[in-house]
Amino acid sequence: QDAAKPKLANVTILATGGTIAGSGATSTTTVGYTAATVGVQQLIKAVPELANVANVSGEQVFQIASESMTNEHWLTLAKRVNVLLAQNSVDGIVITHGTDTLEETAYFLNLVVKSRKPVVLVGAMRPSTAMSADGPINLYNAVLLAADPSAAGKGVLVAMGDQIHGARDVSKTNTSTPDAFKTTELGMLGYIQGSKPYFYRVSTRKHTVDSEFDISNLSALPQVDIVYGYANMNTVALDAFIAAGAKGIIHAGTGDGSVAARVKPGLVAARKGGAIIVRASRVGQGILARNGEANDDELDFVVADTLNPQKARILLMLALTKTNNTKELQRIFYNY
Ligand SMILES: NC(=O)CC[C@H](N)C(=O)O
């Protein structure tokens, strides 16, 4: 180590697959390519500039397209992250991930990582073989962010398109364009410019070291499913999930989480049968008002606050590992 040079941080890249590790037939193939073909060492080799910002090592944790991510994958990944971050020799972690469920994995980790050290998720919208692939610059940004002390203690982060997003509120908002990741109304946390992160805000909600959730001894999570609200909705999917043993249902309702007249008795029956009902909204923005579109006190329902349905599912699964009490569950939804 050159004494004049500042010591570089040690960043471990955990690769899970996705388009960032995808390859297509030609340089103009941006759809119809194969995700999860390129290995972690190849990803690192493709960006020699990483060596300027961190001492990087890589581990291939999975090699999948992220629509195939399961609860079991999340438990495996989270346990590995916690083991690595407990080591003095690891300063930060970058997780390369498919973009389809990236926001879900980020929020899961945000709730179960037991460290203040930076954890940064990153993906790409264009495969590695495409003209103007976004993977290399995104990976470079993610590694420098994970190596930067300013990223510590802010919860799990997402680095996409020169922007820093918080795990709780970021979403994929476009099927295919490179600027797909947005924190629409609550706002992203900052930018990465000229190889430096700049933070402007943080989430006020609990995460990581302040979280009450502990997955270290879990090998499975309770079954929670999502039913989607739409005109002409019926209870067929709801009834099937309950029959299959769902412990919780996220009702991704229309508007402010409104419930169709012919669906409401099904939700009430499911609650009476022991399942937890969380009202969320398919709208994507805004607070879901408790006792607004339904009398939650009387029906013993929980509301998702501002969480989108897929993130409400994650919080409910983790919350159900601690309690079945709906007052407690509602407290959790207002705190995370
Ligand atoms: N842009 C992407 O990463 C999408 C590829 C794939 N569907 C995935 O999520 O892994």
Explain this structure:
The chain has 2 domains: 202 residues, 3-Layer(aba) Sandwich (Rossmann fold), CATH 3.40.50.1170; 112 residues, Rossmann fold. The mean pLDDT is 97. Helix 4 runs parallel beside helix 9. The chain has 10 helices and 14 strands. Helices cover 27% and strands 20% of the residues. It is globular, with a radius of gyration of 20 Å. The protein is an alpha/beta fold and 336 residues long. The structure holds glutamine.
Characteristic key phrases:
four-stranded parallel β-sheet, single chain, Rossmann fold, alpha/beta, 10 helices, eight-stranded mixed β-sheet, 2 domains, 14 strands, 27% helix, binds glutamine, 336 residues
Q: Count the domains.
A: 2
Instruction: Supply Rg.
Output: 20 Å
Largest sheet: 8 strands, mixed
What is the CATH topology descriptor of the largest domain? Rossmann fold
* Class by SSE composition: alpha/beta
Low-confidence stretches: none
Order of helices and strands: EHHEHEHEHEEEEEEEHEHEHEHH
Q: Count up the helices.
A: 10
So what's the CATH class of the largest domain?
Alpha Beta
The CATH architecture of the largest domain is 3-Layer(aba) Sandwich
Question: What global shape is seen?
Answer: globular
User: What percentage of the residues does DSSP assign to strands (E)?
Assistant: 15-25%
